[in-house]
């Protein structure tokens, strides 16, 4: 068993790790996806999605509290035995590996499309693999520091959105709830997926220094994520006409095309290059969870070897199968339903079970 | 073993990295600064391109090319055959569109590649040319800065003075797709010199609908709440004293430091109505008649009436052409959504039928430094 | 890397590389003077600078021999304070001590090993007939220079005394700043042939014991012939030998060393080296200079910020130039683009080659300037200025903009107060230029990401190197980018892992109000 007490993450690192996983590649297309479903009322759906994700996060923390010194896999092993633990580890390896790889490949595809159209996707991913390896092979403390640093390095990019905000047409947002609640609920489904990523708490919890702050931390992370999503979405909704916004594949990037300074134009190129950092805070914790689960599955202490294998698998996958943004999106849609089970259904069931279990045990003891 | 693995990996990286090549550097490119689209006499599409030529030292010359092609992308092939470097679109400053192109309703899809291709800049100014594009693009007076710079700053300066619109590709795209308003872009023409003549209004397909001169353009921008810096206007407030008076002693000029337009929308008797309230704080900067002829209250009244009349004229003009550059449709959508939804696709006509009430309120803030 | 390791292993196997054939470790001196002299001459065979002076002590009438190495001892001390009393003075009362000299530092010993090293260290040894112990007199005195102003880390307001090549002087220079009994020292000798004396200085109630233990363990592990200076000692004990960043702070300033001891760091004084090692080092201390505390805090903060800005400029400016020219010319505003385009028009090379040529020229000029005597150095500067500044541009080999970029980079890298960090930064810009030439901004980002990945996992003596930036420790930011007024910094930085955090009480008067 891995000693979690040795590598700890601080409260802030915990927040930024969760927030980092939530804000990733999805932000680029989010305004369009919301507009497609709910028009300019999409932002209400964001708040709904945030409510769901906060509830889900709190349930996960409640579950993890039952066995505070281990990851979800240790917890399952503790309550259900070794084999359930192994199976869970296997499932988590697959889940996180797929999720991580999809985002990783999408990152490459975005860069290729917007910044370096002449460069081979394989080479781009190979390039991105170098820092990924250097970070993921370390322990969680390093990852926590990375998430923290990147948050402070990249958040100021949001200020660039004040330029499109100057040409905002707030009338676009009116009237509220123009098409009834139905489209908003449909969009809430999309936003629920945008907030995915807090399931990383399954693996972060044992590393947290002050466990009593786990719930408040995850709520803060969700609020931060909501804030980022809301800012970008509202800027996009007010800047673009509601009839126009669905024309753009990635409105978040397009918004920056109009930002000009005296010394710098075409900010979207700079932005996308910086955005690699933001996406990396999604990919790297996912990869870390993958290799952590893998090391638990095989009962090894050192996970750095699995990082190499994971990255190599990704590269081989990209080399063998042609990639496209559409195909990538399709894959993500498919994994989203699994996410829903893993992130909402599974913890709730587990929670109810553990609750009954402890109740019964107490009664038996009495 | 592990070390060997690392070394192999490193060599592998180096080999792969060194095999990939970058883009052509700046000096091997031909940067298109202006693109022009026009129709020739037989209605063939003609494309113009202007690019800088870097010479000895810091001197920069320019050259222009003209080709006949089917699309913008297709024209690049032909430009490439003419220029030294690869023609690139990343730095297009101005897109000139001939009035003859705009008179055909379905011209907008020509610009598809501009939006589809991420290398294009979205802040390229789109400008109508009254007359052949070739006349503007071949206008290179030696005493003026380079045409692309000149044209761009011409538009930007007038935009700052609330006399023209930037009309960037981004704005044009928005206005074309937005159902509640119609597009408008700045218009230039060349007589002896290149001059900004006003604004061209397009209908919601992009077809040329109406021309507005500069004072009208200012009014339009004021109605849109798009005042930038101080707006200066010169209007008559008294009847002209007679034909022989060569000095227009009835004129007054003022600078509006504050312009606030409030629009209220409603729906009555199966049509929309709009209440437009313009509130201005003005400083008088020029008055050619003595104070006795009009006291402050009268003057306020006169200016208000004059402005109101001008705005009403403007509204009539655009309603006649069934275009809505003000974007009243946005107000209709925001406050009268169910009614708007019905006429959404025909907003121009619904707007033409709607009632628009204009009221202007003036607050004279100062009379300038002269005591009179 | 593989080859080095193999070589290293081989070296370890023949671990007896420095033990001499004549093993002295257990041998004691005899009570016969003649035997001892014979042994000495045996040990120091073929040593012409060995002096064996046979005397008869006047007090006791005993034959004796004074042995020393002539270059390493102070002749005056030996004549006046050793030989003179022994040969001429008679005192009535003291009978129990038969080697009466007027010296403070006198030791007695009877092992040959100690005697040998004492002689080698510049002491003189007195053998007396019929005694099985020898006296060791501290008569060290070798050619040394006086204390001079610091040369590399010069400062305006700081102390103008630099460390010298004598360890004891250096210790004294530090001790003058910290007159406290908690200032403890540990002595470690390193190097079988060099016998380098290291003195670890720390505040016992402030420095973290784990860090101290880590340092001592690492120093004890060193098993080499000799170490000639502080920098090579640092190489033996740093955490990551492959890192471009210096992980121990090497300084020639006693005030800086004392300041860091007070912060909770540990200073290793290296005898015979005019520098001391400070550890655990964090990234930020390489951006501090003593002058920051000699100037008013606003001024100091401004300079600090410029240094950090310079850090990024020095690493990324040439790479950004390459990336922009070769990939993303779109981001340059029109007017600037026109002037860059015009100046690049005649350049026959791609931007990468252009930049590499200029950067390497600059590096060579810099290196040439350092090693040459000052008079020739000036010529190098003039030649370099003409070559870089004018001829190359006029010949159309490089563009004006490139010259500006190179000059800015150079200035930015020289603004870093620490030489090692400055050198590291200058080196780092080359890999950045390479990735930028392949991938533009994306390459730059990945380069930065790799740098960050390395930066956040680097440690110095088991302490996070990136602190207080990563891990984030906001209380330490009071003395990071902005130097807050001295009276507002009440705590020692967390980055040093000091066990006693409070260092001051807020007792500033309230200013104008009273």
UniProtKB/TrEMBL annotation, chain A:
Source species: Neobacillus niacini
Record-linked Gene3D superfamilies: Amino acid/polyamine transporter I
Location of this chain's protein in the cell: Membrane
Entry-linked InterPro entries: Spore_GerAB
Name of this protein: Spore germination protein (Amino acid permease)
Domain of life of the organism encoding this protein: Bacteria
A single BP term in Gene Ontology: spore germination
GO CC annotation: membrane
Bilayer topology term: Multi-pass membrane protein
Any Pfam family the entry gives: Spore_permease
Swiss-Prot/TrEMBL keywords: Germination, Membrane, Transmembrane, Transmembrane helix, Transport
Family note: Belongs to the amino acid-polyamine-organocation (APC) superfamily. Spore germination protein (SGP) (TC 2.A.3.9) family.
Transmembrane segments: 12-30, 42-63, 83-105, 111-134, 146-164, 184-205, 217-240, 269-294, 306-325, 337-356
Automatic annotation (TrEMBL), chain B:
Source organism superkingdom: Bacteria
One BP annotation, GO: spore germination
Gene3D superfamilies named in the record: Nutrient germinant receptor protein C, domain 3
UniProt entry keywords in alphabetical sequence: Germination, Lipoprotein, Membrane, Palmitate, Signal
PANTHER family per record: SPORE GERMINATION PROTEIN B3 (PTHR35789)
Family from the record: Belongs to the GerABKC lipoprotein family.
Protein name: Ger(X)C family germination protein
Organism: Neobacillus niacini
High-level lineage: Bacteria, Bacillati, Bacillota, Bacilli, Bacillales
